Every structure is written in C-alpha cells, then in structure tokens.
Amino acid sequence: MTIQEAHHHALHVLGQRRPQLARTEAHSLARLLLDNTVHLSHAHLQFPERALSEAEAQHLAGALEEAACGRPLPYILQRREFWNLEFFVDERVLIPRPETELLVEAVLSRIEEVPSPQLADLGTGSGCIAISLAHARLDARVFATDASSGALQVAALNAQTLGVEERVSLIGGDVTHWSAPLLPAASGALHAIASNPPYIAGDEITQLQTEIVDYEPHSALNGGADGLDCYRALATQIKVLLAPQGFLALELGAGQFAKVRALFEAQGWCVEAPLIDFGGIERVLVARPA
Predict the structure, then answer these.
(1) Percent of the chain whose predicted confidence (pLDDT) is above 70
(2) Cα separation of 119 and 144, whole Å?
(3) Nearest to 144 by CA among 168, 164, 161
(4) What is the pLDDT of residues 61-117, one digit of tens each?
(5) 3-class SS at 168?
(6) More confident of the two residues 23 and 142
(7) How far apart are the C-alpha atoms of 290 and 287, rounded to whole Å?
(8) Beta-strand (E) ranges in the chain?
(9) Residue 160: per-residue pLDDT
(10) What is d(CA 17, CA 65) in angstroms, rounded to the nearest whole number?
(11) CA–CA distance, 188 with 243 (Å, rounded to integer)
(12) CA distance 263 to 248
C-alpha cells in the first residue's frame, strides 16, 4: 500500500465509521494519523508513491481503528502542544486546551517584576500550566498538586522531558482541601496560584462530546451539582498560601464568571475584570485578598 492509497483508505474508514465528522476534519485526522505513522509531514502530498512497510501498515491500522472509535487524536499520538511545548498525554489526564494558555499569560504578565517567584498550580493534570510557567521563568519555583496519582506520573514525565524537574515540585493533593498539601512548604510564600479546576456540572458531563465523555477523566471535569464546588473551596482555603500582593488566577467555564466572582467577593477577595478568550468567553478570573 502506498502512502496515497493509505490516505484514501483512512478517509474511507473515517467517513463510514464517523460520518458526523466534517470532511475537512476527516482529512486532517487522516493526514495526522498517516504522518505520525511514517514520521513525515504531509506525507500524502510529498511522498504519495512511497510504500508503507508492514510495520507501518499495522501501526496505521491500529491508530485508524482507535480514531474510528472516537478516541481523541492527542491520546492516540500521546502528545499535545501547549505553550509551544510538546506534552505527553494519555487518559490519565485532560487534554490541554488552547484557551488554558490564557491562564499562563495571566500569571506571567503579573509577575514580570517579581524576582525568583514562587508559584503553584493546583490540579496540575499533565503539568502543562506548571511546566509552562517554569519554562517561561527560569528563576521560578513551581509547586504542582493533583489528587490523581496517575496525573502526577504524567506530570513528572513531562517535567523531566522538558527539563524543569528540578524546579517543579509535584505533590499529592485533595480536591476538598486545596491548601493542605502546600502548607508545609509554601504557607504565605506564593506570589501566584493558578488553577484549572473541574468546573462542569455533574449532570452535564454526559452531554459533552463523545470523545470527552468516553475518554477523558471525569474526576478532572466534575465540579459538583452546579460546577462551582471547587471554586467555593478555593475561595475559602487558599488565602493562607499567598505572599503579600500575591494573587490567584482561575480558568472558568462559559457563563461562570459572575457567579464565581460573587463567591470570591463574599470571602473578601478583590476580583479583576475577566480575561476573554478567543471565543469571546470570560475565561480567566484573577483575584487578590482584600
């Protein structure tokens, strides 16, 4: 089978098994699966007549079956780009999203004048936020917590691969006691805390895309009955971790800013105007203790 034939075959399989995919999306998915198999970019255009080896054909068949079943491409490829860095991902962690980069930007822009900042990422997952912060600020120390041992294993691999393992401390956490894991090491010492906590209402998870429902970890999605449980806990628990002039930056779901702002203001926080993502959603809340 040539690369061109393999590309046509992949398109045919995806068209039959996942007819809901737009043609452009199916083309992109087929191309990326094929490129990953032969380790060439746009292989069906550059090397259409090159024959696949038996091992390549088997690899492509397996990846194509996973894609046809709806497994997200980053899990198939076991990688996702974030902040111009390549992160390993699998089903132990959420797939990093582009809008989360706004959270990284929010922290970095506010610590430009802070020498040797101490930072934290609560609910780190793949480590994409913590590691991106450490990569951008070579003088930073970053604490990263997660309640999932599997997620911490993924984050540790990414920290090592991306060369920041000596400045990113990974700590087991608890979604009901956000500050507890950091009290021994960072009480009153953090210049910034970032978090992308679970914020989907529990009964809405099954209404999400099949790729999310069937493959991504629900524990990293479920924010309780109204999606706000983690924000309530954060508002009441983490002031003790912040240094003077320290701040908190949180990712939010669509339509949540006003409710989360009210939660924080009721606990004595000063909340900035929301940061808007590329889709027009009030995506990031920044707050400081009053």
Answers:
(1) 100
(2) 9
(3) 168
(4) 999 999 999 999 999 999 999 999 999 999 999 999 999 999 999 999 999 999 999
(5) strand
(6) 142
(7) 9
(8) 80-82, 85-87, 118-122, 141-146, 168-172, 190-195, 242-251, 269-271, 275-276, 282-289
(9) 98
(10) 9
(11) 5
(12) 14
Cα Rg of the chain, angstroms: 21
The count of other CB atoms within 10 Å of the CB of residue 2 is 14
> Which residues make Cβ contacts (< 8 Å) with residue 69, sequence separation at least 6?
17
The two tokens of residue 54 are 């038996």
What residues does each domain of the chain span? 3-69, 80-289
Which residues touch 78 (CB under 8 Å, ≥6 apart)? 88, 89, 90
Q: Full-prediction pTM beyond 0.85?
A: yes
Closest Cα to residue 267, out of 228, 239, 248? 239
Q: Whole-angstrom Cα distance, residue 33 to residue 77?
A: 8
Contact 135, 82 (CB under 8 A): no
CATH architecture of 80-289: 3-Layer(aba) Sandwich (3.40)
